[in-house]
Specification:
By secondary structure, this protein is mainly α. It has helices spanning 6-10, 34-45, 51-60, 68-81, 90-99, 107-123, 129-132, 144-147, 158-179, 184-209, 214-242, and strands at 15-17, 22-28, 64-67, 83-84, 87-88.
């Protein structure tokens, strides 16, 4: 994850209290989904009561008031400690902010993190080396050699590829299931990821049938990954701008 995306991605349970005359403070709820915050604010504002009563309502929704300067300082420190070559180690970042008292991960986040670690360990095992030397586990690891690979999936490679592909497909389906436990924002991401998975499975079938080479398979994976990044960025922007 790139550093400039950190605050967009991770500050889910926080928003300025400027509407309440306290712009130097945030609302915070441990492990809040984006919709948790927005729904609570809308519900409390609909009471048409004074600021004090609305703040009490937010407390009843599980949100507390925290100092904005401390939040920003803690996040910036953890971002710096958890980044290398302008790339953020998300797990390290979460650990750092958690140690400072900020619980940013939702239950879905934690489930997806667990699923990702399990699949990564499986894919990187020696059992699948014959496959991953042609198609690395992560799309970001795909290099020019992989993209220019004109060989096709061999008969001997097919059983291994099918086994790994089945594991990947099950992993993605479980990730989508975890996403659907969230609010409107997470539901949209889940639907979008399901659409991308259809493309992924189509590419798997074409590699298995010999219609495409390893190189084309890897090119398709990179394009799908780029589309995923752009789609997620679009959803985040729309969510923040429209207040969905």
């Amino acid at each position: 994850m790139r550093m400039h995306r950190v605050f967009t991605v991770l500050i889910m349970g926080l928003t300025s209290l400027s509407a309440y005359g306290q712009a130097n403070q945030y609302f915070y709820k441990p492990g809040a989904y984006k919709d948790d915050l927005r729904n609570a604010i809308n519900a409390c504002k609909s009471l048409n009561t004074g600021n004090r009563a609305q703040l009490k309502c937010m407390n009843q929704q599980g949100f507390i008031v925290v100092d904005a300067a401390k939040v920003r300082a803690d996040y910036a420190e953890c971002e710096q400690k958890s980044s290398k070559d302008n790339v953020l180690d998300k797990k390290s970042f979460y650990t750092c902010v958690s140690a400072k008292g900020w619980e940013l991960q939702t239950e879905a986040d934690k489930e997806i993190e667990r699923l990702s670690a399990e699949y990564k360990a499986l894919c990187e095992s020696i059992e699948f080396k014959e496959i991953t030397q042609h198609a690395p586990c992560a799309s970001k690891q795909i290099n020019l050699v992989n993209l220019s690979d004109e060989s096709s999936l061999s008969a001997l490679q097919k059983p291994l590829f099918i086994k790994l592909a089945d594991s990947w497909n099950a992993y993605i389906k479980n990730v989508i299931k975890a996403m659907r436990k969230g609010g409107n924002y997470e539901q949209k991401l889940a639907n979008y990821r399901a659409d991308l998975q259809f493309r992924s499975e189509k590419d798997q079938l074409e590699l298995l049938s010999g219609k495409i080479t390893w190189g084309q398979f890897n090119q398709n994976r990179k394009e799908l990954s780029n589309d995923e990044d752009m789609g997620i960025a679009k959803f985040k922007s729309e969510f923040n701008e429209k207040g969905q």
